[in-house]
């Protein structure tokens, strides 16, 4: 076996072994038992606790005509957010090349929807947005991907449904991902997903169309900007008029200043509005009415990278729900505000082999 990357004409098969661990300590002024997960939280979900967000291992196989991907994970992120049926499987899929640049893959995947990943290592901040918490995390189905057009990358998806490994009805959902590279420093990506989300036994059909668009931009290796916006609607889902279409939206902007290769500061502002609760679920508001979730959040964080594949981060976030959504508890009193601190440490590595 030879290390992939050396000039060896006999190398046809490429195997990548990867591993990733992220640990945390988190603190919240929302009074919950330490065994409970904080609501709407992906990373650092337990209060006043040292924990493991994720520990994962993966194998990726690549050949000129076939490829495969298999990732197992464990930790608070899978427990808080992942499928109950296949909680330990992050991804398991196989792909076949149809023609140059065109691949067909099928199996279990991480979602193609969203401005950021659910894994801290892939984001500028470890805190994930409320949009990310309510977007799909995982999906089962098949995709066609095409990458030989200059500056363009395209995916077409057929899926079991929104955030499903196992389908809840006999309908299938369709989605796309379109990425355009404007310049070496700027790209724009659009994703969507459409399908029926109601169960077969439901007397009404609830069709959901979810869209996401985001821009990545950086210059001078110092300043990084990400801006994203989500908009979705679902038929027969309005809380007041159940036969009317309900809509939701959310947005974010993140800015990072990279002082040097090892130290940076990042800030983010976000908004999430799902007043009919067809994505986020519903709660009882201060007036005794059923209501969806409406939140704004502001996050500030620092990152130190002793090596390129590792990081130490310290972050604070303040969250405010709409005035009549007293969904948090502080000093035995209901409130619409939550303050949190989060410390994370992570390391990831990947080793490539050829044979």
Automatic annotation (TrEMBL):
<dbReference type="Pfam" id="PF07642">
    <property type="entry name" value="BBP2"/>
</dbReference>
<protein>
    <submittedName>
        <fullName>Porin</fullName>
    </submittedName>
</protein>
<dbReference type="InterPro" id="IPR011486">
    <property type="entry name" value="BBP2"/>
</dbReference>
């Amino acid at each position: 076996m030879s290390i992939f990357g050396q000039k060896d004409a006999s190398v046809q098969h490429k195997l990548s072994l990867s591993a990733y661990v992220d640990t945390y300590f988190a603190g919240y002024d929302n009074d919950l038992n330490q065994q409970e997960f904080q609501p709407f939280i992906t990373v650092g979900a337990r209060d006043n606790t040292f924990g493991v967000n994720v520990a994962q291992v993966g194998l990726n196989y690549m050949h000129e005509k076939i490829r495969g991907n298999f990732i197992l994970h464990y930790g608070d992120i899978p427990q808080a957010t992942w499928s109950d049926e296949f909680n330990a499987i992050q991804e398991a899929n196989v792909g076949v090349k149809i023609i140059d640049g065109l691949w067909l893959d099928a199996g279990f995947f991480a979602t193609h929807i969203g401005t950021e990943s659910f894994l801290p290592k892939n984001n500028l901040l470890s805190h994930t947005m409320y949009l990310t918490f309510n977007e799909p995390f995982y999906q089962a189905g098949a995709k066609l991907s095409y990458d030989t057009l200059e500056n363009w990358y395209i995916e077409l998806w057929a899926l079991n449904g929104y955030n499903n490994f196992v389908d809840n009805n006999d309908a299938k959902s369709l989605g796309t991902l379109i990425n355009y590279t404007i310049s070496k420093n700027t790209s724009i990506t659009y994703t969507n997903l459409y399908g029926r989300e109601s169960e077969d036994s439901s007397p009404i059909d609830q069709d959901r169309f979810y869209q996401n668009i985001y821009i990545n931009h950086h210059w001078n290796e110092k300043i990084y900007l990400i801006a994203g916006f989500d908009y979705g609607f679902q038929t027969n889902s309005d809380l007041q008029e159940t036969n009317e279409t309900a809509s939701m939206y959310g947005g974010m902007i993140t800015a990072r200043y990279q002082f040097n290769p090892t130290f940076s500061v990042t800030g983010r502002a976000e908004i999430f509005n799902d007043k009919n609760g067809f994505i986020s679920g519903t709660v009882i508001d201060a007036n005794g009415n059923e209501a969806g979730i409406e939140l704004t959040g502001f996050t500030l964080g620092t990152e130190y990278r002793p090596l390129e594949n590792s990081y130490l981060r310290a972050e604070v976030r303040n969250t405010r729900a709409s005035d009549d959504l007293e969904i948090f508890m502080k000093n035995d009193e209901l409130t619409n505000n939550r303050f949190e601190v989060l410390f994370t440490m992570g390391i990831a590595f990947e080793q490539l082999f050829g044979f």
